[in-house]
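lol ok so funny story. i was supposed to be doing the assay writeup but got distracted and ended up predicting the structure for this chain instead. priorities right. anyway since i did it might as well share w the group, maybe its usefull for someone
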Amino acid sequence: MSRTIAIVEDEPAIRANYVDALTRYGHRVVAFANRPDAQQAFALQLPDLVIIDVGLGEEPEGGFDLCRELRARSATLPILFLTARDSDFDVISGLRLGADDYLTKDISLPQLTARVQALFRRTEALRAPQARETVIALRGLRLEAERMRVTWNDEVVPLTVTEFWMVHALAHRPGHVKSREQLMREAQIVVDDATVTSHIKRMRKKFVAIDPAFDEIDTVHGAGYRWRS
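and the output, tada:
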């Protein structure tokens, strides 16, 4: 099935390379050189996945602004940063805004396409029809796997794809400690420990925004995290 990938990148040569590589994998690729052009197109229809550079033309953080806008429109749209900016501050900023992954431009094209395919596999796996719906219900939590839907006290928690899989990994075996490496494996991401920590912090904030008393995710120092049993 052909999916539409949008690339927002201000460097023409780099943009062309990404378009060529992803087109060869059978995707429909649309490319934009700046945030206004991308915004105009996305207002008509959202793509299936977006790849964004942080600095866009005269906007040093235009990619962050675009990510914020896209995440406000869709909690599940896969958003991937691909940028030369690799400071911890930038990575954490991107993830806090709701990106599913943050890659630097030294990544090879085969690695990039593998990350894109992994994001698509994760979203499609949960949309596939199942004989019966998989539901995890624990205190205020209700997680519907096939719908990729999480509620807390009957209110929807707007999780990204990566956050959903991390909650799923923790909640399907409450009380069991998951190391950062296990969470990365189950969420199908490869990042450093600080990035996993940033994902966990953002997940907690989304639950706390619904319920200030939320305290289900324990940090087990030196070991990882667990959903309270």
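The two ends are 41 Å apart (CA to CA). Residues 4-127 form a domain with the Rossmann fold fold (CATH 3.40.50.2300).
back to the writeup now i swear
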